[in-house]
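Internal tracking record. Fields below are filled automatically when a chain is submitted to the structure queue. Please do not edit lines marked as system-generated. If the sequence contains nonstandard residues, flag them in the REMARKS field before resubmitting.
Queue: standard
Priority: normal
Entity type: single polypeptide chain
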Amino acid sequence: MSFSVTYRRHVCKFFFINNMSNWHFSCLPHCNEAWIQETGPLTQEESQALDAFAGIVRQYGYGEKCWESPSQQLLLRSRR
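SYSTEM-GENERATED OUTPUT FOLLOWS
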C-alpha cells in the first residue's frame, strides 16, 4: 500500500498565519520562534495584520458561526 501526500499552498499559508497569530493555546510558539530566527523580526505591518487576524478568530472561532455557508448551517442544525 502506498500513500501520496499533497500539501496545498493555501492550506499551508492558513496554518502559518493561524499559528503566527498565536491566538490560541494550541499555537506552536517554537515554530514562530524558528521563523523569526530564520527571517528576522516581524515588521509593524506584519504584527498588526497578525493581531487583526487573531482578533477575528477569537471573536468568531472555527465553529458553526464561522465560515459555513447558510446551506451548511441549515444542514448542521437539522442534524441536532
